[in-house]
Write a structure and sequence with these properties.
about 325 residues; mainly beta; Immunoglobulin-like; 3 domains; 5-stranded antiparallel β-sheet; 1 helix; about 5% helix; about 40% strand
């Protein structure tokens, strides 16, 4: 039979032993050191200058002085000297300086998972494997992000305009739909039948909030008096609705509905034309081509032009319904 206990190496009182109190007190000292283990610090490699009786430390790497050669051990100060206890796998200790619980894994002391340990993780997987690209991975039927007394935002940040900040929806890990800032700052919704070929269904310009779609496009253009602005339709042919946006004058006299073709044979046909809106067909507009006091439209190769001769700065609202 051994003379010490198997776990804490506490000495046994042997039969017919003299001065039994010495052995008993030694066992109590070990128990006093290691039970409810709480150390003052675990990052010191040199003993403190003025330790108090009963002070305990976990010795850090590179120990020197009285602690030399005892890295990872629990050092306790008793009777004006340091007593060392080698840790066993599974031991727990409270690090009072760091405010965290440590555990010994057989080779060193590591923090137990907790609120502070979960900061700055390299990766995390919840019921799923994380990797160097997908550093946070969750596999579940649902995920909940709730408020804490007010609202809640989910933020996706990118480094630069040419980078991507988006939500990607997949089918068997192949992309089918994506929304966000995909390689630019226009907000877009894209779809794909196979994860390789993508079509932009909707894009929104951030500066003016203009929405564009393959067969539907709306926006507002600002045109100075006696000036011309060109608009590129979403397709080679379709319908165009245009009107002056004005809070003072009635919009009705300055509106028109057209059928256009900007292909090989450009054409602009009026379906409904208010008195202050003119269709000049394929005429080249210069800013003073149309009649004074009116707005004129004309079609050219790949574009439709609007000329403002209304007498002052005007905003024009337009909507295209056309082929892709």
């Amino acid at each position: 039979m051994s003379d010490t206990s198997p776990n804490l190496s506490m000495p046994y009182i042997l039969p017919s032993q003299a001065q039994k109190h010495v052995t008993h007190n030694e066992a109590l000292r070990i128990l006093d050191t290691l039970a409810q283990l709480s150390v003052l610090a675990a990052d010191l490699s040199v003993p403190p200058d003025s330790p108090a009786e009963g002070d305990r430390y976990i010795i850090a790497d590179g120990a020197s002085g009285a602690w030399a050669g005892h890295e990872g051990a629990v050092a306790s100060f008793f009777g004006a000297e340091w007593i060392f206890h080698e840790a066993a796998p599974g031991w727990l200790a409270h690090d009072r300086a760091a405010g965290q619980i440590l555990h010994f894994d057989g080779s060193g002391w590591l923090p137990l998972p907790g609120p502070r340990v979960l900061e700055n993780l390299e990766r995390a997987g919840v019921n799923a494997a994380a990797d160097d690209t997908t550093r946070f991975s969750v596999r579940s039927e649902a995920s909940l992000f709730s408020h804490e007394g007010a609202g809640h935002q989910v933020k996706i940040n990118k480094a630069g305009e040419a980078d991507t900040a988006s939500l990607l929806f997949q089918n068997d890990f192949e992309g089918r739909a994506e929304l966000g800032l995909a390689g630019q700052d226009d907000f877009s919704i894209k779809v794909s039948p196979d994860g390789s070929n993508w079509t932009t269904a909707i894009s929104v310009e951030p500066a003016r909030g203009i929405a564009r779609m393959p067969c539907l496009q709306s926006g507002i253009v600002e045109i100075a008096n006696d000036s011309v602005t060109a608009i590129t339709p979403p397709g080679s042919c379709g319908f165009l609705f245009v009107t002056i946006v004005d809070s003072v004058y009635s919009q009705a006299p300055h509106s028109g509905i057209f059928v256009y073709d900007i292909g090989l044979t450009p054409m602009l046909q009026s379906l409904a034309l208010a008195p202050s809106m003119a269709n000049l067909g394929t005429t080249t507009l210069t800013g003073t081509t149309g009649t004074s006091g009116r707005s004129s439209l004309a079609v050219g190769a790949g574009e439709i032009r609007i000329e403002n001769r209304f007498g002052s700065f005007r905003k024009y609202s337009y909507t295209f319904i056309g082929s892709d």
